[in-house]
Amino acid sequence: MKKVYPVLIVAMLFVGLTAYASNVIQRPSPEKILKKLDTNKDGKIDKEEASKSRGGKLVKRFGKIDTNKDGLINLKELKKAMKR
What we know:
Shape: elongated
Low-confidence stretches: none
Number of helices: 6
Structural class: mainly alpha
């Protein structure tokens, strides 16, 4: 019986930490990203707005994400980029 307790404790910690990590690591949805970065509320993200993304990651990939090359990232383009 004494050997069972440490195994149970380790198993419970593992399950708890796994559940916690899955919530912490989860990325925001494309809709949430657009809502947060679209400061002028036109439904698109321009380069200036993208530069305010965390770590500037979005602005670094702007040219690849903006597939129609109109200088803006719309929700469809953002969703496509996040699937990659």
